[in-house]
Q: What sequence folds into this?
């Protein structure tokens, strides 16, 4: 079986395993108060060019989203997000569990636009309606598209106009910053938002995400909230050790190399399938593609490849999701293309 | 100034004031455990023909909605409601404050349909998404339309098919059950849902709503939840006394007479304006109407009448909301019609 | 049956009923945005001598406590209260329902002392423990004792030293300010705390409490929180109308006259029973007394008088609670004393 | 520097690192739905002799406690715990964040007794008080004592009498089950409670705990709650892989060998210090000891050893905490004893 199931179906890049092994017997303080976390945080402040940013080593993406929202908003404030956004769609109401509404808007190709924020603001009246105070997006989006610099700038500007916080879920940030369609540096992205995270889980770490908080008003007592929201790891250093290993070298680090590799193989899949006249469910730029196949082809592909069916059949075609990761082999991509070519020809 | 502002802008029907005065010096137990609450509850059980229903005297509509939802749903369960629904639109996130998501759907003429429930269910996948477990609607709706027996039956059936609870916000229930377009008895409505409330605040009570819980699974420890969610009044008997006075005589009681009166005057307004070729923002059946006027007419009307502008100007017209209540006078309606006639003629 | 059950077992003082009747047909804005609420608020600002205080008309005591706490504290902050405090003991976890811990301390004669606050602060370590940020007390206390000016000043000073908010539950504030043991003016009390409420429900109102917020940091967006926490009444004016009627005349108003009356009759009961060598469960100063009787006496008293047994029998005696209120008659007190005298003699 | 700081200051036992390395390139499903988690769960069901238990691989101890409590209790129910209990003392109000009160009782030598549960139940009255529905304890306790079989049986019986759930926090369970004072098997412990967890973080795992739910009523939709409460790891298999490696061999597995090792070295420290006439702050049985030293000795010890001061100086002595772990060396213990001997002699 060849896997295009997800980018977190394998363990970690060897460099991560090696770093964990090498530091295994060190004694350190707990809960992220150790040299590795401090060093990794410094590396990230360097990378984004903001010496004043707070960096927190978080155990996962949901704790990142939940803790940022619960920590930054007053009880009567809400967060605007896409209906397809991860915090809305795939976190079992973890945000509402902290008492905050997610005001949903419908995206276009997985993206939010400034007028969608306007629409959400229009629904706000007065003390009888929660006050929209944060915009939540993902870069890349849930359907693997990426915001351009102009698009992100427009969202950022709209947020600032309305005194809204702008938070970017970067579960797969590496693939956005290294894809062909990208025109943004990580420094520029950091400047445009109030907080974002650099995802480890979906890009070659064993687990863990590095949360960056730039807005001073969001920094206060954040570690209290991490503990309260179950996002503080006793052996917090494990996350620090991983990011030290992954980010060494900045944009040339293993972290971004892995993203480039995943993007490259996704693009190879996409190009290959396009040449077979396969259509796509959505227009993606990073390491997930969504080709459409007739059910009988899907059934055959499922015998040798693992992937998700992404939506119900429509007009005779089923969209499937193929995800590439740091561990995906060029030969696996070729095997898929060969197989598909044969099945479509048949 | 003549008021069409809301149906809760005045005090209470004289029969309510008289009952409160008459019982004022009685000593009773607190928190709704008194003879008046028991008697009013019995009257309601008789009215709806369900001797096993639990009836609770609640201090307001928001506490009703919040307590029912927080008490009936498990933490990971959500409630499906219209984006225009009161619990979503006008309660400042009080539902989310208890940790539950409201999954919104867009209504048609203020109404939900079974396929909208299907759509909400489609968004549910597995343990990564909150489980939709309740449907919340209002009868009449927020735009003064009413569900027919067939429509309500279809929603009820859909809920039961999917093991969802069906809850009806009856803040203005009296006007629904007595309007010209109604084809439902209160017994039928009660049978179709799991819980609903009979609104007092917007229909001639000083304050208070009578919540009816028919589904046994929703009855357990409800009074604990009333206290926890700030919906239990120390002098709970005040609400019992009011409903005793209001509901004496069942469908011929003062309660329903007031609703008929409000509906009648709203209809008179609507008919009168229609004869002047005024158009309406939405199609209403009960005590709220939404005529469209040019801004200069609205400005003139505002000099003598109090009402809300309901939405921004569009195509040269502004929708306003006119609400009639138990205390609205026939002469006040005539004054409005005369005024409008003159202004439109001018 | 003669009632010493509670001070909220009857309706409202006639002056309240008269005011509600008189204003019944007025049209006003909803949700406390009306002339009566504004006027009552001005009267309260005058009474306490703080023109900058925010005053909110709340539907009950639990909503007051919950809304103040949920609005003022950050999610990781806790409130220090007596184990016997109302917000801990009699509100079904309504505070914890908003995500905040109540850190309990054990009182002495129902009172908190500065060293109890120190003890609570000692339990605080760092980001692994909620941060104590508010002190909650009641004046008078749950066992009817009152804090002296010196005691309250010491608590206030301790709070300010530790940047803690100081909030006073004044459900029965009138009886504290008018009892024989009182040495505090309402102005002085207001100056010592950040927020407090003037209770209506337990002192002759139909229902409702007037919340006073003096600390600017606690004022922001409070009405949003009132709605979210189910404490905002649609016909909010009802509470304004009542406080207008009750507080006319300041310290000589009906409000304080009723408190003096209740205190006077409680004192008469206490003195009378003391003369019969009856002992008391706790030392009270206001309108609740806790005499100890042998069970056979209690059983006889229960035939003609309604009251609560306050704690289990101990050493052959049962403490009962006798509460006097605005409606208690001197003759009722005499009847109790005569009865007790006879039973104890027998 | 020699570390007696905590049992989670180092990485993982080599057998864990080896297993993670060996399985690193496998592709598996996410979120704990993989063969390793299934296998580890089977091993645990075998170990405790309950084929029907549900086992969940949790990311940490706080998520265990929070998810079990939030999932099992209705909103108005509370959990009884020691004031010194981890869920109360060291989790920043994470339980209250889910809306539940922790009713605290004061322990004796870190332990709860049945009469403390009675005392908590006495505080419960009716719908005005949260209903105590669960008892939370730790085995071993926060001060390293262990409940005997008789003590645990008495607590279990008391819980069942009052229809309360009994949950045991087993962050350091291995050390309890292997210490000299233990008279309980893991099967017996499992039978006495409704749920407990086998801690990994503090006993040689990289991170992760294995939660065991025996009570059917607590099993329902638990994975939804894990996600909602931030306790579900994307690469959940990492925890499964670790427990597979740790528990191979049951009571003779590496897991329990490590606990025996830690206990042995703590006992050696304790015996050695006792021979020097050192007193102890509390009576411990497992891998934490609390010797009392004069400040000047503590200051000297701090130059070569890392440990926590546990409480303020009293009567000239400071209690310090020494923790041994899987990685503590016999020579490190000897070094401490030698050093202490010399300092005390001096």
A:
């Amino acid at each position: 079986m060849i896997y295009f199931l997800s980018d977190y179906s394998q363990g970690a890049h060897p460099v991560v395993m090696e770093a964990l092994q090498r530091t295994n017997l060190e004694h350190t303080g707990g809960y992220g108060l150790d040299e590795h976390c401090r060093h990794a945080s410094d590396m990230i402040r360097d990378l984004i060019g903001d010496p004043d940013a707070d960096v927190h080593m978080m155990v996962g993406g949901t704790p990142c989203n939940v803790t940022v929202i619960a920590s930054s908003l007053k009880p009567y404030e809400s967060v605007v997000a896409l209906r397809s956004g991860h915090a809305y769609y795939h976190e079992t109401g973890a945000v509402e569990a902290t008492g905050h509404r997610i005001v949903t808007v419908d995206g276009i190709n997985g993206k939010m636009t400034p007028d969608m924020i306007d629409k959400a603001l229009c629904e706000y009246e007065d003390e009888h309606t929660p006050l929209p105070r944060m915009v939540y997006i993902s870069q890349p989006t849930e359907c693997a598209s990426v915001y351009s610099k102009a698009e992100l700038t427009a969202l950022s500007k709209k947020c600032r106009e309305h005194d809204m916080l702008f938070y970017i879920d970067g579960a797969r940030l590496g693939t956005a910053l290294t894809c062909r369609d990208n025109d943004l540096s990580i420094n520029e992205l950091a400047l445009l938002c109030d907080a974002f995270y650099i995802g480890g889980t979906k890009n070659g770490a064993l687990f863990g995400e590095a949360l960056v908080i730039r807005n001073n008003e969001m920094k206060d007592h954040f570690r209290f909230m991490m503990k309260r929201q179950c996002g503080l790891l006793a052996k917090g250093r494990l996350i620090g050790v991983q990011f030290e290993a992954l980010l060494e070298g900045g944009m040339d680090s293993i972290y971004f190399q892995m993203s480039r590799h995943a993007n490259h193989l996704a693009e190879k899949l996409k190009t290959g399938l396009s040449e077979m006249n396969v259509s796509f469910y959505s227009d993606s730029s990073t390491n997930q593609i969504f080709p459409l196949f007739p059910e009988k082809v899907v059934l055959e592909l499922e015998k040798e490849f693992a992937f998700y069916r992404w939506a119900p059949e429509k007009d005779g075609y089923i969209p499937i999701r193929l995800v590439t990761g740091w561990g995906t082999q060029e030969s696996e991509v070729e095997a898929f293309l060969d197989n598909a070519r044969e099945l479509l020809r048949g």
Remarks:
- Chain B is about 40% helix and 15% strand.
- Chain B has two domains: 2-6+255-345, 14-252.
